[in-house]
Amino acid sequence: MADAENKSAGIAESKSAGIRDLGYARYDGPRLPPRRRYAVLAKQHLALFWRGGLVKAVLIVGMLPLLICAVVMYFKLQAAKALAASSFKYNLGSPPEQWIYNCVYWCQLWFGFAMSMLVAAPAISDDVRTGAFHFYFARPVSKSHYAVGKLIAISTLIAVLAAGPGFLLGVMRLSLASGSDDALKSLPILLAVLMYALLFAGTLTLPALALSSLTSKTGHVMGGWAALFFLPWPLGEATASTADMPYVALISLPTDLRLVAQWLFGVTPSYDVPVAAPLGVLLAVCFGSALVLRARLEKVEVFA
Amino acid sequence: MLLELQGVDKHYGAVHALKTMDLSTEPGSIGLLGPNGAGKSTLLKILLGLVKPTAGSVRVLGEDPTQRSLELRQRIGYMPENDCYIAKLDAVDTCAYAGELCGLPPAEARQRANAVLEYTGLGDKRYLKVQAYSTGQRQRVKLAQALVHDPDLLLLDEPTNGLDPQGRDEMLTLIKQLPERRGCSVILSSHLLRDVEAVCERVIVLAEGELIHHGGIDAMQGKDSDYYQVRTKGTAEAKTLREALEAGGCQALLDLDSGMLQVRVPPGEDADAIFRVALDANVQVRHLERRKASFEDAFLDVLAQRKSAAS
Q: What pLDDT, on a 0 to 100 scale, did the predictor assign at position A2?
């Protein structure tokens, strides 16, 4: 039915559409060197993502935990500062690093995952379906430009979600420091936020992109990615707790991210495992995904 | 020189896709013809620098695609046969993006995208999403995105695919005008001989990885390809004459519905040869007319000659 409508639209269009030459002047100005085409790709994708209503919604809603944490942190730190000189002992509860960790890990995990579903899952499967490989690779765009351009655009969005609130909370913590010693003690939080955001963005981008390169069906990619990300979580945690085998928990990407985040923010770890173990798992997943992506792109034929 | 190929060979494992091809051609409109598996796609990939030849040297627009493929692709526009668009982009954004990927500054790319969409007849529909377009409109977008960056060479793969007759005529008119209006050369790969005949001055014919013809269309439709249409008294006599003509070295085809024979005489012979054979076979010729071979006849003839030479 849709085809028939398209056909009739095509006939109507071809009767009305005609060539209209507005004059032609050859472009002889400077051109961007081919080696920087990944930047064009990344910019275009960021612009395209920004047009998506859901992407905007996730970005905006993703900032709400920041507001809540910021307000709570402000009042707690101000209260602590005001009462420091008095005889009252005001209990801050958990230290500020813990609140930043809670915000960056527990809240942003969900928004980051939602963002990866929205932008990473369809990133290559859409191109497979619409024949966009011809569009890119018959032009001065190499397969590495293509992969790097997509990776930069997607991981930037996810990293902004992870790092933005954490970084702002870290800056706020610095500005509310009770003295220079306290401020110096809080500085590593900013570095921890940045490092975690990089790892978080890589973990949520590369496997989703690799899955996206395997099929033209975006729904399958989304289902597969959600299963891969969430199913091992309860399984690993339950086995680790009941059988007292902490390493089993590492099969879950959220657990690995949590253990690394706990180490970075100086929070007591959930499992007694060295940080190298979850970090190694995350890096291996990222590296393996990059290899899958590369292998799939190598096989792309521009002419069938 | 537009293309210069010397001893170009391409193997894919055991498959010999291109066989020691030597070819040099001047700029202009060139048709690329050949049956499936002839090596057309392999040749296009080599010209774009997407695959390297196993042996031989290639120069396209004076550049070596094996060494400077990205720089070369900046000077080439490619219109693919199948659907090719970026999901969620409208036609202007698609063409502007294509221009930027070929190195144009963003403002210049956008301006040229609008102009090229007007040129391809999509001016008033250029802000619609490409996935909502009809087949004909998508073909126009594909041509526009191939043209937006001012290519010196345009590779068109089945550009009239899926178009209605009027859309097809408009597309061919558009393509025919490109060398003159935009100063670019065109290589048109198509199964539709009428399209090639309408647009191109020269043709490259490939079969089983070999170059079997390269030259002007007029030269391909030369005197040797002309044939005679012969009518006899009845079908039985036509069969007798066909056998006699074939025994005498002519090629003869009998159309049983019309009872007409299509006869191609050996080089250097003319209609007298048919009359002589008819006289010897005691067959009365009632009608004889010389017909100019169509481009399709000439193409099939080139393929048949190659087949007989190979066997």
A: 40
Helix (H, G, I), strand (E, B) or coil at B283: coil
Inter-chain contact B174–A142, Cβ cutoff 8 Å?
A: no
State the CB neighbour count (10 A cutoff) for residue A57: 12
Pairwise CA distance, residues B191 & B174, whole Å: 19
CB B193 within 8 A of CB B116: no
* Angle made by CA atoms A30, A35, A39, in degrees to the nearest 5: 85
Question: pLDDT tens digits for B269-282?
Answer: 888 989 999 999 99
Q: What is the crossing angle of helices A218-230 and A253-264, to 10°?
A: 60
ipTM comes to: 0.82
**Neighbouring C-beta atoms of residue B213, cutoff 10 Å:** 21
Distance between A42 CA and the closest CA of chain B, angstroms: 11
Candidate from A23, A130, A140 with C-beta closest to B83: A130
Q: What percent of chain B has pLDDT over 70?
A: 97
In chain A, which residues have their Cβ closer than 8 Å to the Cβ of B45? Answer: 302-303
User: CB distance from A244 to chain B under 8 Å?
Assistant: no
For the cut 60, the answer to whether the pLDDT of residue B243 exceeds it is yes
The answer to whether residue A19 neighbours chain B at the CB level (below 8 Å) is yes
Closest Cα in chain A, distance from residue B253 (Å) = 37
Record: contact A11-B97, CB cut-off 8 A: no
Q: Which residues contact A3 (CB under 8 A, 6 or more apart)?
A: none
* Residue B209 CB-half CA count within 13 A: 13
Q: Would an 8 Å CB–CB cutoff place A299 in contact with chain B?
A: no
Give the global pTM: 0.81
DSSP A176: T
Length of chain A: 304
Number of A–B residue contacts, CB under 8 Å: 163
Selecting from A19, A135, A303 the residue whose C-beta is nearest the C-beta of B174 gives A19
Question: Are A62 and A161 spatial neighbours (Cβ–Cβ below 8 Å)?
Answer: yes
> Following DSSP, what letter does each residue of B4-52 receive, concatenated?
EEEEEEEEETTEEEEEEEEEEE-SSEEEEE--TTSSHHHHHHHHHTSS-
Give bridge partners of residue B291 from the DSSP assignment: B227
What pLDDT band is residue A41 in, cutting at 50, 70 and 90? very high
